[in-house]
Amino acid sequence: MRALFLDRDGVINVDHGYVGTRDRFEWIEGAREAIALATQSGWRVFIVTNQSGVARGFYSEDDVRSLLAWIAGECAAYGGTIDDYRYCPYHPDAPLDAYRRAHDWRKPAPGMLLDLMRVWRLTPDRCVLVGDQPSDIVAAERAGMPGFLFPGGNLLAFVRPILAAAA
Fold first, then answer.
1. What is the pLDDT of residues 96-113, one digit of tens each?
2. Is 7 a catalytic residue?
3. Is 136 considered catalytic here?
4. For the chain, what are the domain ranges?
5. What is the pLDDT of residues 10-63, one digit of tens each?
6. Which one is catalytic: 7, 62, 104, 115?
7. Domain 2-166, CATH among 3.40.50.1000, 1.10.1660.10, 3.30.1380.10, 2.60.40.10
8. Which residue spans within 7-113 are E strands per DSSP?
């Protein structure tokens, strides 16, 4: 089984800074189609996202989960599946005490990726990650999988050759 790991802000949606609700969510061009292509090509699709907006008090973990569920539903309408997700609400400099700490799920640490690989019984040689920040790529490398830095634009056009090369 192959797996595509996607960062959220800057890859699936435009990064407007601390996007925690649907009203601030704007799809990256080709994102739903890229997820549909991966799904239809037999890939598992996972979202792995740092969400320090929780640690900063901008929105709650319930908001994060609600938005991720909505994203999954929107992708399903395009024929895509979000099989699972992980998010990290912690930040070492968080204003909220409950979320102020270093955490092995916060990218560039690989914890979210490793947890999904463990739960889904995946090996890193059958996984790839697409992110928009160097910390995403470092997390992928630390998890033993290739990482691809998305420069923006159309996600489907970016992902199509990655999926084809790994098939």
1. 999 999 999 999 999 999
2. yes
3. no
4. 2-166
5. 999 999 999 999 999 999 999 999 999 999 999 999 999 999 999 999 999 999
6. 7
7. 3.40.50.1000
8. 43-50, 84-88
